[in-house]
Amino acid sequence: MTTPPPASPPSTATEVFDAILRNSSDLYRGHREILRESYIPPRLPHREHQIQQVAEVLGPALRGDVPSNLLIYGKIGTGKTAVVAQVRQDLLRRSDGRGEVAFITVNCGNLDTAYGLLQTIGNTFANAEGDRIPTGWSLDRVQTAMRQLMDVRGGIQILVLDEIDRLVARSGDGVLYTLSQLNTELETARLVIVGISNDLKFTNNLDARVRSRLNEEKILFPPYDATQLQDILRERAKEAFRDGVVDAGVIERCAAYAALENGDARRALALLRLAAEMAERDRAKRITSDHVVKAKSRLELDIIVECCRTLPPHCKVLLYAILQSFERRRGGVLTGEVYESYTKLSQRLGLPPLHARSISNYLSELENLGLIRATIVSRGRGGRTREIVVDVPLGETMPALEEDPLLAPLARPRPLNQTLLTNFDNPNRTGPSY
Question: Alpha-carbon distance 324 to 213, whole Å?
């Protein structure tokens, strides 16, 4: 009996959507959100001690006492935000909705200014549209309106500043000083600050007055080891997937990859979730270790693309010039050739080219980010120069850069079926597509 040929892949987005709707997933038992970092599980393995510490600091709010300010330190993916979220849920539940305690959670990674932070805090307590603080007021007026709204609400208000170090890096410590001395100006309300930071040393450069007020309590979250990550993934997998669909070794491989990167639980969960997505695309009945390998490649590409998108404009043009020259030569390129290519691309885009010294600084930045490698080579009487080698996959990074509005005029025609994920969906792919 002859084996029927495999079905040809869908050629349009509509066909892809139709196929997804026709074929329900055989992998999932629960909601896919279970595998995302935003999901707060009923139990956080290996963070029981930290939960107890945070609860002991914030618990006095239940009897009307003002807790100490709290700073929580730890590397990315060590459960800081999840622990605070779980303590928040339990504390609000025990307060029986009487309103003596309120939480305001702000991700400082999404705010650039002190103005935006104070406006966001104030508007959290606005009961009607007319009470909201509009954009355009002076900073002093925004601060006054925020205090008034907080006093109308009253009670103990716990302000959680996630990624507080990024706020300080962008706008200085002035806004933290304003918040830390706010209780001397409030009448019926009291403010407690809970700062969450990935930078263990970010308070070193704070004003002494701010540091003394914020450093009332500190909690350090250690990174997870591989065994702890396995426990976390097994609990999530048991809740998310049907019995028997996760092959032996999948959990261990996801945990091992994440343990190598500072014990990041977010990365471990992302690997497991992407491995399941890869299995679904392959229409597989089980999640295998091969799917984890493909997920790791996909995740690394996402990090590279995101890194490229956040580069300064001239640095993006420089990286594109390097990739273009490297693709053309299929080998290392010299700094002189790179600068010449960068200058031509800048002029084509209407940007005034930077001086060679500035470009040299950008080259060092790209090397520090791991996107390129530069080595010193001797050219005899011609002196010494740097030879640049690309450390990212050209076939994925160049199209990603061309999606940027700045570099869109440089985009080259590509086949309609070519996507950023082509190579990563190919099980025979063994390395970067140089």
Answer: 52
> Considering all CA atoms of the chain, what is the largest pairwise distance in Å, rounded to the nearest integer?
85
pTM for this predicted structure: 0.69
CA angle 176, 179, 185 (to 5 degrees): 150
Which CATH number does 22-28+225-307 carry? 1.10.8.60
pLDDT digits (tens, 9 = 90+) for 381-414: 666 778 888 887 787 788 878 888 888 888 876 5
Single out the residue of 250, 261, 182, 260 nearest to residue 214, CA to CA: 182
CATH tag, 311-410: 1.10.10.10
Which runs of E-coded beta strand occur in 244-359? 333-334
**What is the location of CATH 1.10.10.10 in the chain?**
311-410
Listed in order, the ranges of the chain carrying CATH 1.10.8.60 are 22-28+225-307
**Euclidean distance between CA atoms 295 and 301, whole angstroms:** 10
Beta-ladder partners of 158: 103, 192
